[in-house]
Amino acid sequence: MRRRLATVATAVALFTGMLAVALAVPFGLFAGRSAEAEIIADLSEHLIAITTGFTGARVLLFGAREGDGEVVVVVRGPRKPMVVRRKGRVAGIWINEAEMTFRDVPAYYSVAASAPLDDLPASVRARHEIGSGYLRMVAPADAPAAEVGPFREALIRNMRRADLFYVPEPAPLAFLGDTLFRTDVFFPANAPVGLYEAAIFLVRDGDVVSAQSTPLQVSKVGFEAWVFDFAHRHALAYGVLAILIAVVAGWLASAIFRKD
User: Fold this and answer.
1) Helix (H/G/I), strand (E/B), else coil: 44
2) DSSP assignment letter at 1
3) Measuring CA to CA, which residue among 228, 110, 85 is closest to residue 163?
């Protein structure tokens, strides 16, 4: 019964949000604003709570545009340094022979669009980081220019294998009529915790004419959050405690299954 009530409440909230966005255009709520107000959007929720048994989450992004144009949605995860290593065979043994650390790499990256992005100029895509090939990943200043490209491509492949998207083609974004639009943003079970950003762009005549961004937090809650916080704040104590638990568990197992 509670689950049914929660489902009904969520549906009512989404309908109310869509209705509010729909009324923003005909009642002139865009009037008198700058070009940035030509598009308005929001998320069905702004917090994804990771608990025991978390298998991923799907968040609805919805909004409305004023006038014509295509809509592009870019969702970026928390930026952090990432190391890419290249293996090589030395004396018959595979070892890490080289590595490169990129700074400011989104730990999650997805794109949705109402139309293909082939006609969007490369300069516009690079300015707004639309597409994994246009992300600004900061390579070391002393890295050889010929090496940066292959390591960057390897990093993108690694993110795809980890199901953190970085896919070359955008996911579909659907229009409901001429004004309203929606798309589902999926966060996998291994989505990194931290602050995410959903950037929404209105593209017209090969340029971005309006943009908006909205935050989303992915966070551990409950006992998992306590363990995660304790492990990061008190790494030494966490390691000692883990060893003690393993020793006690091993002793208990041997005592229970010991044959007299």
Assistant:
1) coil
2) -
3) 110
Distances (CA, A) of 146 to 100, 139, 150, 192, 232: 13, 12, 8, 31, 37
Q: In this structure, are residues 42 and 213 in contact, taking their beta carbons and an 8 Å threshold?
A: no
> Measured between alpha carbons, how far is 184 from 75 in angstroms, rounded to an integer?
11
Reading the block at residue 178, the tokens are 């001429």
Which residue, 225, 219, 216, 221, is CA-closest to 110? 216
pLDDT band at 228 (very low <50, low <70, confident <90, very high): low
Largest CA distance in the chain: 87
192 DSSP 8-state letter: P
Q: How far is 179 from 62, CA to CA, in rounded Å? A: 11
Q: What is the pTM of this model?
A: 0.76
**Helix, strand, coil share (%) of the chain residues, nearest 5:** 35, 35, 30
Distance, CA of 207 to CA of 156 (rounded, Å)? 26
Express each pLDDT in 72-116 by its tens digit: 999 999 999 999 999 988 878 888 989 999 999 999 999 999 999
Domain with CATH 2.60.40.1930 in the chain: 2-220
CA 58/CA 156 separation, integer angstroms: 23
What's the CATH code, domain 2-220?
2.60.40.1930
Q: Are the C-beta atoms of 72 and 181 separated by less than 8 Å? A: no
